[in-house]
Amino acid sequence: MDNSPTALFDSYEQDFRQIIDSIRSKLDGEGKDERGEQRRAALRRVEMELDEADEMISQMEIEIQGIPQSMKPQYQNRLKTTKGDLVRYKKLSKDLHSQLSRAELLSSGRVGTPTSDEPYGPTSDRTRLLAGTNTLEDGSRRLQDSQRIALETEDQGAQILMNLRAQREQIENSRDTLRTADTAIDRASGTLKKMIRRMYQQRVVTAAIIVVLVLLIAIIMWEKLFR
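The structure assignment produced for this chain is given below.
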């Protein structure tokens, strides 16, 4: 297992590139060449993959925080490139949605000729017109949902980053506390050694005083007894 600080970033970037390749093939192939329900289904799959690509970018934003400063500028440029690719394909998907909705709306409007009694054409034509309008509204609603999901994902990523920063600060504070405790222990150990040294010195002085006193007493008694 690769334990390098850039391993996860590289893995998420590779997943992102695979998703983008799949999106490109659908937008350049299925999204343009197919018609009707098949084209709509292809665009729905593109929307799902765009959400997955957005999630990959969020994970890359998290992983880049742990990359060493000497390597970070290079990976920031790569992250910027992936964001640009995602924005470009989101715009292309939105344009194809709009084209599909307009095409369905226009195709439904060409059928039937309006009369004075039915200014909007036969009943079937009005139904197709309403269906086209509903399709356009559905496409707009899907785009709004995609934007909302993207914003929610971005907020979640930002919250995760804030939590990681808070945890890192806690770890750094714990390290500072340990350093302070080590310093205090060293000082206390030095103080204890000094106290023990003084205690031995005092014992030596006390013993010397006692010896001197005993000698003086012995001398005094000897003088009294033999003089």
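Interim note for the steering committee: The CA atoms of residues 29 and 156 lie 34 Å apart. The helical segments are 7-33, 36-63, 72-110, 123-226.
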